[in-house]
Specification:
α12 runs antiparallel to α13 and α15 runs parallel beside α16. A six-stranded antiparallel beta sheet has the order 1-2-5-4-13-14. A five-stranded antiparallel beta sheet has the order 3-15-16-12-11. β19 and β20 form a beta hairpin. It has 18 helices and 21 strands. 31% of the residues lie in helices and 18% in strands. It is α+β, with helices and mostly antiparallel strands and 568 residues long.
Length: 568
């Protein structure tokens, strides 16, 4: 049976309504029909099934164990304690008793069955959140630097993430009608979409706002990146603009590749929305609507040429971008433990295993963070490395937070015995992701255990090496920017990439193809040995591999991003 194309489904969806209302009421199946499975993504949800149970259910002649993942729209990744408590209650009432911090600074809730979908969406709304545009062919969750040290600048960047998110929210009222029982009006299904048009975008679109010297949002992995430029007085002067980043790829197909963004110039704050509009609408009009594998903005740029795309953006925006201004990135990781911000408040970054917040034996993360939320008067900031910052703590409240951290084993010593484990990132993969070819989140702890003896052997237990694991080449964990990356090929088999950098500015290189864990460890052993013996002071692993000539740059377009300050 052939299915209609995604483009046809979007055009005929009546502004993202489809037949979702009817499908939700159909109790004969836990699934939605093919068309509505595509439409519901725009409402922030994916239909999935538990792949661990597929074979047994097939033998019993049962349909798959259908369930839904729901993703929160949270530009800038900031949550109030009240919102946190609401999410924890939703996780235990409707979902699989866990929350998951994504690499896009928000939460995913897994395991919601169809009959509970509407109640879950309403509970999210009651906690002052929504899921609009968290998935689908629209602008996704906008990332904002979570650096806690510069409070005024963080507030401005967070405000820009909010503004961009609101500006690019679809105009349709479908979400509010379907989930929140808003009364339908005469024009329901025909609302004007001035930015997106009738068919929305060819594929998803991602934005991020970074604040040098920290690239904790991996700004060059986004379709549109904004790099904050601060003047001598510490005020926000504007942004360098980068376009064309994306981590998606396919095994063995050279036409499907990851890519880092090009810096194309500088825009003042008053110009930001216009240049962002121009980027989105150029991609809307020129993006490939025949082949979804070729539909991201990076391919549009490479097909037409950066100069052509930038000229079109400037024409639509009504101004010429200024030359990019100097900036320097130092790293793209998180700083764990307590730090004091310039406003005198304290911020505690906790490392979360693959971003999963659940109660596990010896480490009741869900309960512990819920207890912190009951007494915390600041905010929670999610990081793009799947960690959480308990932000805005007065000095006098630190002891109370520390006591709860110790009581619930939330501290680093109970999480990660090595530096590489503290910063490791993994996507969800099996059992819920339909695209997963291999394990990622469930595999990471075991791989770290297997890697630990090698780190000890070479004296690298505290060496900050960036490891990322992805269950497939689509790259949700941004593996192609890591110093070491495993990208799933098949159960128990991965492609090994090495040589990315710690600033998120250089992509890594395929080092071993389709290998097992013993082969991965055998390949890493001599590299780690030479790094330990030959590294210069403070030299990072990926940088050493290039300096020593052990890896070459990959054959991807614009694979190296050089700071204007360094190029001068």
């Amino acid at each position: 049976m052939s299915h209609p194309s995604v483009e046809k489904i979007k055009l005929e969806s009546r502004r993202l309504r489809g037949t979702l209302a009817e499908g939700l009421l159909d109790a004969s199946t836990g699934s939605l029909n093919f068309e509505d499975q595509r439409t519901i993504k725009f409402h922030g949800s994916y239909q999935q099934d538990d792949r661990d149970l597929r074979d047994e259910r097939r033998r019993q002649k049962l349909e798959p164990a259908h369930q839904f993942m729901i993703r929160i729209r949270a530009p800038g990744g900031v949550f109030t304690p009240q919102q946190w408590l609401g999410l924890a209650a939703i996780a235990t009432t409707y979902a699989n008793h866990s929350l998951r911090v994504t690499t896009r600074q928000t939460f995913q809730i897994h395991g919601v069955v169809k009959r509970d979908l509407k109640a879950t969406m309403q509970a999210i709304n009651a906690a002052a959140m929504d899921t609009v545009s968290a998935c689908g062919d629209v602008n996704r969750n906008v990332l904002g630097a979570s650096n806690p040290l510069q409070s005024a600048l963080h507030a401005q960047v967070h405000d820009w993430a909010q503004r961009l998110s609101l500006h690019f929210k679809p105009a349709t009222r479908a979400y509010y009608e379907l989930w929140l029982d808003e009364e339908k009006v005469a024009e329901s299904g025909v609302e004007a979409e001035p930015i997106y048009g009738d068919a929305y975008l060819p594929r998803k679109f991602k934005m991020a706002v970074a604040v040098p010297p920290y690239n904790d949002v991996d700004v060059f992995a986004n379709d549109l990146g904004l790099i904050a430029i601060v003047d001598e007085a510490g005020a926000l002067a504007g942004f360098n603009v980068a376009i064309g980043g994306s981590m998606g790829a396919s095994h063995g197909i050279k036409e499907h590749y990851p890519r880092v963004g090009n810096v194309i110039g500088f825009a003042t704050p008053t110009q930001v929305l216009a240049i962002a509009d121009a980027a989105v609408t150029v991609q809307r009009d020129l993006g490939d609507r025949e082949d979804r594998k070729q539909a991201r903005f990076k391919y549009t740029i490479d097909k037409h040429g950066p100069e052509t795309i930038v000229a079109m953006m400037e024409e639509r925006a009504g101004f010429r971008l200024q030359p990019a201004r100097p900036y320097t990135f130092e790293h793209n990781g998180d700083r764990f433990g307590w730090v004091e911000g310039d406003d005198g408040l304290w911020h505690l970054t906790l490392s979360l295993p693959s971003g999963r917040i659940a109660d596990t034996p010896g480490r009741p993360l869900l309960t512990g963070l819920r207890e912190i939320a009951k007494v915390h008067r600041g905010e929670f900031r999610m990081t793009c490395n799947q960690n959480v910052i308990v932000a805005g703590v007065p000095a006098g409240e630190r002891a109370r937070i520390d006591a709860l951290v110790a009581q619930h084993a939330l501290d680093l010593e109970n999480r990660a015995p090595t530096a590489i484990a503290r910063s490791a990132v993994a996507c969800v993969a099996l059992p819920t992701c339909a695209l997963a070819m291999a394990e990622a989140e469930r595999y990471l702890p075991g791989f770290l255990d297997a890697l630990e003896p090698l780190l000890d052997k070479h004296g690298l237990r505290e060496a900050p090496i960036l490891l990322r694991v992805s269950g497939c080449p689509n790259g949700c964990s941004r593996p192609y920017l890591a110093e070491i990356a495993l990208v799933g090929r098949a159960p128990g088999r991965y492609n090994l990439f090495v040589g990315g950098d710690h600033r998120g500015m250089r992509m890594n290189t395929l080092y071993r193809d389709n290998v097992t864990e013993p082969q991965i460890l055998d390949a890493l052993d001599p590299l780690l040995a030479r790094y330990a013996a030959e590294r210069e002071p403070d030299e990072r692993f990926g940088d050493y591999l290039h300096r020593a000539g052990l890896v070459e740059l990959p054959p991807y377009p614009t694979h190296v991003r050089v700071d204007p300050a360094e190029a001068a």
